[in-house]
Every structure is written in C-alpha cells, then in structure tokens.
Amino acid sequence: MNHPLTRRRVLGGAAGLAIGTVSVGQQPATAQPLPDLARWQEQAARVTITRDDWGIPHVVGRTDADAVFGMIYAQAEDDFNRIETNYLVSLGRLAEAEGESAIWQDLRQRLFVDPEGLKRDYAKCPAWLRKLMRSWADGLNFYLATHPDVRPRVITRFEPWMALSFSEGSIGGDIERVPLTQLESFYGERKVPMTDAEREVLFSEPRGSNGMAIAPDRTRDGHALLLINPHTSFFFRSEQHVTSGEGLNAYGAATWGQFFIYQGFNANAGWMHTSSGVDNVDEFAETIVTGADGRRSYRYGNALRPVKTKTITLSYRTADGRQAQRGFTTFATHHGPIVREADGKWIAFALMNKPIEALQQSFLRTKARDYAGYLDVAGFKANSSNNTLFADSKGEIAFLMPQFMPVRDDRFDYRRPVDGSDPATDWRGLHSLKSLPQAVNPKTGWAFNTNNWPWTAAGADSPKAADHPRYFDQAGENPRGPQAIRMLTSRDDFTPQTLIAAAFDPYLTAFARLVPGLVTAWDELPEDDQRKARLAGPIGLLRGWDHRWGADSTATSLAVFWGEALWAVCAQLARDAGLSVWDYMAERATDAQRLTALGEAVDRLTQDFGGWQVPWREINRFQRNDGAIVQKFDDAKPSIPVPFTSAQWGSLASFGARRYPGTKRYYGTSGNSFVAVVEFGPKVRAWAVTAGGASGHPDSPHFNDQAERYANGDLRPVYFYPDDLKGHVERSYRPGR
User: What integer pLDDT is reported at residue 291 of this predicted model?
Assistant: First the structure.
C-alpha cells in the first residue's frame, strides 16, 4: 500500500557520522612541477600590469588568455584571501576552513554544484573558454608559487574547472534563498527553528544596486551617460582595467576570483547590473510515497516516479585543526534537490544551473561594442538574478530583465511552493528575449532600476504589468524608485558631474512620506497627554526638516532612529498583511506606534550620545581597521563621517550601517561600493570611487586612500586610455617580478 512518508521515517540514518580524521593546518603552497613553472613564466612574459596612483591594476595581455592570467594574478596580489574564500563557498568547501558550523552551507552548495559534474562540464566547454579557464588557474597558481609567504587555508592548487563553480558575479546568488535552518532540520534529522532573518521579520539592509542610463538627447553634450552604483558588501569587488590584443578592453569591478568585469564599460558600451525582483526560482511540494518494496517515489500526475538519491561527503575542520568527514544521503526529483519539508510534503528547489552558458555570457558581454552585440550575448539566457542598464557610444540605452525566465502557468502563485504532483506547474522552457519586460531607447530618454519593479523603469515608456505574467515582479516599489524618477525628470541637460550629483542627492523619500503622519499624530494629542510635552522638541525638529540627509543634520539622526524603532514594530505586521514595510508604516501604523517609536528613538540617542540632538556625522561612520572579511569595529579608533544613509530610507547613495558589540556609533559594511559615471562620447570618459581602497592589505598605501572621497561622493577620473595613465603610474611590472 502506498502512503505518505514523514521526513524522519524516510531518512532513517541518512546523515552519517564522522568517519575519520586527518591532521591539517593552514595549508602550505604546493611545490609546483618545473614544466608548470616554465609555462607560467612564459605566459607572464606576455603580460604587463601597471598600477596607477590609486593602486588600480591596468592589465595588458597579448591575448585574452594572457589578460586573464594577469587579471587574476593582480587580484591575488590585492586580496588572495577573498578569492580563496569565494571558491571555498562556491565549491562547498567552506567547512574545511571554518569548521562544522559551515557544513550546512556546504551541503546546500553541493546539492547543486557537483565537482565531478563541473569536470565533465569543463570538457564540454568551447576551446576558447577552456583556454581562459586554464589561464585563470595558471595565474592563481603562479601567484602562489611566487609568494611562498601566502598560505592558503585550503586550496593549494586551483584547477581550470573550478571557475565554472562561480560563473555569475552578483552579491547574492539564487541558492541563498534556501533557508539553512530548514535544510539542517531535514538532513540533520532534528527540528531547527527558522531565524528571524530567514522569516524576514528583522530589518535587512537592502542589497542590490542603482543603475541609470541617459540618452544623448537628455544630456548637455549629446553623449549617452551611465551610472554604475552597486550596493554590495564593502570590498566585494576588485576595480581593474583589462585589455588584450584580441579586442578585450574592459574597465570596472570584478568580483574577487572571477576573470570578467561584472559591472563596467569598454570603449563603446557599458553595463550595470541590479538585483532583480523577478520570480525565477521556485519550490515544488512533492508527495512522497513508498511501495510495498520500500522504494521511495513521488507522485507526478497519475504516475509515481522514483526519488533520486545521491551521497555527498563533506570535510570539515575540527576544533583541534584536523579534518573530519560527514556523509549525507540527499534526495531530488525532476524539479530539483529536496531542501526542506513543509506540511508533510518534501520541497524541491528549482533554479538556473547553466555554468557553461553563464560563464560565456559573463565574459563575452564585456566585449560587446553596441546594444545589438550585447543582446546577441544575452541569447545564452544564463543571467538569472540581474536586471541590466545599458548605454553605448551610438547613443542607445536600455533596461533589460534577467534572460533566464521559465515559462509558467500564471494561474499558480509561484511565490509559494506549488504542487509538484500537478504537471501543469512545471516549467515549460524559457521566455524569448522579445517577450521579456524591457525598455529599449525609450522616448523619455532615460531608464533606471533601483531593485524595484520594472513598471516605472522608463517613465511613460516603461513595460506594462498587464502585458506580462505576475511572476515578472515580486519586489514592488521601494523608496529609491520615486527618488530616481525625481532626479531623472529634474533636467534635460545632464553632464557627468550633474549625474554624479543626482546619485548623491540627499532627499529621503521614505521620511518625506512617513514624517507627516508622525507630526499629525502628535498634533492630535490632548494637551494634557504626557507625550505632548516630552516629544514637543523632537516633533519641532522633524516638522521643520527638509527630509534631506546631511553630516551636520540632527534631524537625520532622529529620523533614522525613529524609523528603525517603527520598522521593528511593523515588519511582521506588514508581512502578515502582504504589504511592504514602507507601505504599512505609512498607511497602517497607529498613532500610538508612531509616537512610541519616537520616544524610543529619543531615549536611545540620549543614552548613547548624551542627548537627542546629535549631528549625523557623530553616528554614521566608515572605518577600515584590517583586511579581515568580517572586521571588528571600535569607537576608539579613527573613522570617517558619512553623510548619506541606508537605502532603506530612499537614499540613492547607500550606506548600510548599524551598531556592533561594544560600539555606540554606526559603522557601515555595505551599500555604495564601486561607483562610476561613464560618458560615451567620441572617447569614453569615466569617474569612479571604491570604498576604502584597492588593496586588502593594511600596510598598503591603497588600503584606505579613497575613504574620504568615498564619503564625500568625490569620484576620481578614470585612466582609461594610455594617455590618461601618463603621469599617474606608480609601478609597471610582469607577474612574478
């Protein structure tokens, strides 16, 4: 007789125990065979790395492969630790360095990324791509061979196929949508409650980006402009310029360990990616049954299909520095791996898994010379998580959505698990590029995205929600969207400098919407209410505020502390109501909630800073103490005031900051990172700034030399052409020299 199975009944003893230990410490670099060294030295002789006076590497190679060799070598010089860490994550080997606490993150990765499968994929790659991957691995291995003082934590030799594990450079991959606590509950055979962050009831700094493309007829000089403004963790990418004799000439930000410029430009075209709100990652609720023979199956239509099983063995570092192993029997259906259980059903997780196509698309788009060429590369349909803002020297601009978009039956709500036993819920191929929401050369003369919905991307010329399935947006609007429109419609004579000013405009749309409700709530209090007198001063300050951030603004400090207190009250209520937190705070928060939150803000400011009238500069700070990926902040150490706020409140320039253990000040760890404005005239011109500096080494003069410029929004000229670089060269050398 067939019957549904619970998780515990099926798993039995699937999660294995440690099956052995070997002693390991921080890994020494492996001695390299002499033929390898000779080959690497020969390739290094075809590469020149020139460091400018900001420490930015300008890499020139005879071929694309030579340029990749030098590009990754230069990255390793600046921050090998971040490169290795990214590949420990992408290969599902983080626990080998950080211990058993990372085992579930590794398991999640290995459900989708199989090293043996990547090796087979590598053999299928086109010859030109294999050549680039070999140069990538050679560049890293040559760096380790020539820097014996650098001791990798785990990976002592990089193999070409490893590049396929990390083929898309966005801040958060699709796989991160799998909640680790529920994965642990399922495969660890114990109940683990979801965290508040997983349930999305705590404030989480908006991750994503701003992008703006402006057509020539909206600019003073008749040249297309592009704003590149990713909001990521600080020091998440390396700023580089990479050229070759085969037509590569790309400048911008490369995610550590990758051999393509992820957000940037070449002499003819530029591309900016923003995290998208499309729904193209889905969960399928599977009905699991067993037959009389005990075999596991899942229901699909009127039939039963066998559940696929796979054994995954993971290594992890023990407390005494040795290595142990743990084995798991994992399960999958044709929809994808099983990642959790809900309401008696197993949940299969479906996402894009096209590493060969993704890596090709990521690299080839950097060589596109115009919109038509960029669209040809988009035909790989291997971008799943990013919108794109595009501009080129022909004057064309565009807003594009992710090209990996499964066709689905719009009767079903794919924001929640759909019934995996109903064939009608299956993906039915991919949307054509023409069928995707987009705005190409809009009549408005501008296009943008702030991680919001696509329906306002180009004003009146935006794609229409009614023309597309609802799964094309699950983000809705956010406060940066109206602010971007406000800036883009403010003038028709944009220059690079006025676009930079727009990117740092201080108006906070969220508070412009929220503060009037607070003031009204206070106005309506009876005169004998204790809150009337207690909050009179703070209300007076906010009533007269122009809703603009500023380093010396005390109203900014009070508004941010009040907004955070109100957010904490409204987040879960908003989720339950199916509203954004901003909409809930504006439309449904009670007067009592608004006033109580203001009282809490006043108390916090007074407790931490001695009064409620505190200039924002005293609170909001940039500090870079060391090269650690997760650094410790200290109020007693030097820091720099940052005038702009979190993107949470509508600031286009974003600085995600908060208190940390032992601090009263807020320290930023995310938001504006690499920022650039590009003008596509007869010769491309650009200005840029990077959070902190180009180097991850505290003893480098380029560790923190851009911090003041970063805080002030003072972008520096980019040295794109050899003539630009003249007089700004700090050092020119071959890899290994």
Answer: 81
